[in-house]
Design goal:
The complex is a heterodimer. Chain A is α+β, with helices and mostly antiparallel strands. Chain A has a single domain, classed as Beta Barrel (OB fold (Dihydrolipoamide Acetyltransferase, E2P)), CATH 2.40.50.100. In chain A, the strands form 2 sheets. Chain A has a 6-stranded antiparallel β-sheet with strand order 1-2-3-9-8-5. In chain A, strands 4-6-7 form a 3-stranded antiparallel β-sheet. In chain A, strand 6 and strand 7 form a beta hairpin. The longest helix of chain A has 9 residues. Chain A is globular, with a radius of gyration of 13 Å. In chain B, 45% of the residues are buried. By secondary structure, chain B is an alpha+beta fold. Chain B is globular, with a radius of gyration of 20 Å. Chain B starts with a strand and ends in a 10-residue tail after the last strand. The chains are: A alpha+beta, B alpha+beta. Chains A and B meet through strand 4 and strand 6 of A and helix 1 of B.
Chain lengths: 131, 331
Amino acid sequence: MAAEESYPDDLRYHPEHDWARIEDGEAVLGVTWYAQDALGELVHYEPPEAGATVTKDSSYGEVESVKAVSDIIAPLSGEVLDVNQAIVDAPETVNEDPYGAGWLIRIRLTDPGESDDLLDAEAYQQLVAEQ
Amino acid sequence: MVPFAGWEMPVQYEGVIQEHRTVRADCGVFDVSHMGELEVEGPRAHELLQSILSNDLDKVEPGGAQYTLLTNERGGIVDDLIAYRLEPGRYLLIVNASNREADFQWLKEREIPGSDVRDVSDEYALLAVQGPRSVERLGLDDASAFTFAMQELDGIECMVNRTGYTGERGVELMVPAEDAEELWDRVLERGAVPCGLGARDTLRLEVCYPLHGNDIGPDTDAISAGLGWVCALDKEFTGADELRRIKEAGPERKLVAFVMEETGVPRQGMTIAGGGEVTSGTHSPMLDRGIGMGYVPAAQAEPGTDLTIDVRGRDRRARVVKKPIYKREEG
């Protein structure tokens, strides 16, 4: 079942519909409720490799539904520590739980100061409302 | 909603995968009123159509229908369509929305005395009710595929066509446009689930029905497209000579079906190593993996052949399979 629309307060958001949960110089990344809803049920997740470098505002992977494919934009720069392999096997988990079990990668931040550019939940929700 | 051939069409109502599964398991309804309808009438209507359609209409009695092609001189496919024989000298052709005008022009230019071609598309609406329980849900009796009859359905007079584009049992209901809304409501009350263009595409691709504009077109000949079975090469029709020649020589490339052996979703336009190209691709809800069709050199066309598809810069393995890609397990 698809999740209810929500934008948790403890996350930081990128305008390309990605979120980051920042903790101790690391961040867990994923796509927002809005992104998964726009795409529809996901059928494919093309992840980066562990150890790869991701760059803020650049694509680090792809998610794809029956209808469309979308680049996943990194909200922050860093090195990939962990890829959520469960999503490779069951991409629809992103639709069911975009901020929990549907996380995509975990990175070690190379420039923690970048997070200042990101939106808080309220600002992101306002952006979504305007789309 | 997306624009399609001048129509605003829903891609999905609740979700492509869910709608797809409903049609495979139960019953879904698609509003396909965008399809074009041409009527060809007159004492020489049959003669006209026999000379421009690839299949043999001598095999169709009134009350019967036939899948056929409108071919050009090169054996290319101007359109694929279903011809319904309403009366000995009166046919209804249900054609692709995007080709409606081209088809009409094509027929009009070739009209002979004693035949009259009319575009009646705007007069009719068409609902496709498809799925293993569709006939039962509509309270209809079983009938052979590719037949039709005028019948009343919940008080609405319909042309009930035993045809479809999903590979499932089902009907296509044609009614005057003003009855469409009421018919839609009645069909929903009977338990059909609304389905959009998205599911229509995944359903047809699983059973390898070609989509005109993707898999077939004026520049792809019927033999290479694997549609020799709808070409009556023992009669004369536009392009028949060229199709006989291609059949005799063997096509240089063929439209094949394939399934992905690795992750990734093939899409139209992707390159197949060795000189091929994907013409349709999607994620199959029934197989839960990427599937598609595409043209490959004849040497790569045998089922079991490994293909390599360039999925956005990544080489991904696929395998040629026998059509259809999906077939219901019997029993």
